[in-house]
TrEMBL record:
The keyword ATP-binding does not apply. Residues 4-103 form the Gamma-glutamylcyclotransferase AIG2-like domain. Coiled coil: none annotated. Gene3D superfamilies: Gamma-glutamyl cyclotransferase-like (3.10.490.10). It is an enzyme of class 2 (transferase). Keywords: Acyltransferase, Transferase. This is Gamma-glutamylcyclotransferase family protein. Pfam families: GGACT. It comes from Flavobacterium procerum. Its EC number is 2.3.2.-. One of its GO terms (molecular function) is acyltransferase activity.
């Protein structure tokens, strides 16, 4: 199992059911030194508004999210789900946990 820090759409139970066919359980955590930036992504029916984590010059900037335990197979699904506007990197969260997170590409 791997840890995934989610701050956006992957926290949605509807998205989880569509992607994994199950609801994930997780714990609240924070990502320090990052902030959220608006992002427009072209989808099948037009442009959609999302957010993306970007490194911040201010180490006290914080993103609140959820840490999920997911399998390698589920990570493959997430990698396909996330657009090429995102890339997956490992970070250390405020709790001290190491997790993967999708940030600006």
């Amino acid at each position: 199992m791997e840890k995934l820090f989610s701050y956006g759409t992957l926290r949605s139970k509807e998205i989880q059911m569509r992607l994994f066919n199950k609801i994930l359980t997780g714990t609240a955590d924070q990502l320090l030194g990052y902030k959220l930036k608006s992002l427009k992504i072209e989808e099948e029916f037009g442009m959609a508004d999302y957010v993306v984590a970007v490194a911040s010059e201010n180490p006290t900037d914080i993103i609140h999210g959820i840490v999920f335990n997911i399998s390698h197979a589920d990570f493959a699904k997430v990698d396909l789900f996330e657009s090429n506007a995102y890339r997956r990197v490992q970070v250390t969260l405020q709790s001290g946990e190491t997790a993967w997170v999708y940030i600006e590409n």
